[in-house]
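Table S2 (continued). Query chain:
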Amino acid sequence: MPSFDIVSEIDKHELSNAVDQSNREISTRFDLKGTPAKLELADLTVTVTGEGEFQAKQVIDIFRNKLVKRGLDPNCMDVAEADITGKIAKQSIIIREGIEQALAKKVVKCIKDSKMKVQASIQGDKVRVTGKKRDDLQSAIAVIKEAEFEWPLQFNNFRD
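Corresponding output:
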């Protein structure tokens, strides 16, 4: 029986490249040169350091642009509140990966509401969709892409 998985994954190598490119741009930009502005990556958490909250927001905008250029969806970013101590503002960005239970339920409900001849089941941090025909699965992918969920979703493991 044909099936595919709906997942939310981030290419960690591309994420690392986006952080490196952002730091390179920060070091050469006139308004940020000589300031403590920088990005640091640890696992799936990016720490933004800037001289004040305004500069931290500028660094986040640079990072967001680099993510887009590297082919990563900026909706995966969960930006926390700025922690300001003296002149230095630190902000952490958590890169979300995997589908949470609430989002998985929304995806399954969206598929069931479309009245297609496919079945969707939640399996951990992914949703498996199965059907009798390949065309049904492709129309299910189209319905999910139309639905515009708040997290970036990818479709993989397509099997005939």
